[in-house]
Amino acid sequence: MKNKKGISLIVLVITIIVIIILAAAVILTLNKNNPMNNSKIATLAQNKDSIESGINMYLAQKIANTQGKYTASEILTKKGPTDEEIAVPLVSGAAVTVKINGQNGTPATTAYLLSDANVKSQTDITLPGVPTNSNWYIDPETSKVYLIFTATTDYPAYITDSIASNTTLQQFVGIK
Questions:
Q1: What pLDDT, in 10s, does the model give residues 67-80?
Q2: Long-range CB contacts (< 8 A, 24+ apart) of 36-45?
Q3: Backbone phi, psi, residue 171, to 5°
Q4: Taking the model in full, what pTM does it have?
Q5: In the chain, fewer beta carbons within 10 Å around the N or the C end?
Q6: What single string gives the DSSP state of each residue in 42-109?
Q7: At residue 29, does pLDDT exceed 80?
Q8: In sequence order, what are the beta bridge partners of 173?
């Protein structure tokens, strides 16, 4: 047999594949378009939508059962209703003023902390876990659910990196 000098075709193909994989990783890192971060953001958005959907179904049922006697806001906060039909509010504590990131130039929103126990007992929805220093809040006037942090410095890195360009996050993530 002859001694061959040089590299084989297989080694060349494997080297090119490794270079392509490394280049893709670098490009994703430079663009801050990390698939793991995007999946975390999508999960948060899906959780928010599930909570809103469950609460809206609960409100529709209560409004129908009371023949429209109470508004959604009154049912959520139990401010006004004395009927046994609305025995437990879904919120706890006093209203707080929150600023949602996507509401640039608009007034802050008044929202209430959703009570895990009350939401579970009334709607069979378990509120999903949230990042540290945040909770699920609801605006009783619009029934929109928000993920509210104590301060912007409490945002996890995947939110901090994405919030300026991600319109989904801008619609429901904010601060007290």
A1: 888 888 888 887 76
A2: 36/158, 37/157, 37/158, 37/161, 37/162, 38/162, 40/156, 40/158, 41/158, 41/159, 41/162, 41/166, 41/168, 41/169, 44/147, 44/169, 44/173, 45/168, 45/169, 45/172
A3: -85, -20
A4: 0.77
A5: N
A6: HHHHHHHHHHHHHHHHHHHHHHHHTTT-S-HHHHHHTSS--SGGG-S-SEEEEEEEEEETT-TTS--E
A7: no
A8: 147
